[in-house]
Amino acid sequence: MTYFELSQFMKTFQTYIYTGNREADLDLMEEEIQELFRLGMIDVRFFRDAKLTIIKERQVLSDKN
């Protein structure tokens, strides 16, 4: 899964995340994914893949700095 695919998936739940700050976007996405999982709206496999995508994106950001 890519960052783009994850953001497109979030839109299916009417969740549009864009703050202009990629780190803040990742924080908000992580919170939303955790909430969707807690509510049983996504399965554990998708939750895991989404979390890994967020972790990878954070690593890319830290490598740039």
TrEMBL record:
Gene3D superfamilies per UniProt: YqgQ-like
Lineage: superkingdom: Bacteria
Entry protein name: Cytosolic protein
Record lineage: Bacteria, Bacillati, Bacillota, Bacilli, Bacillales
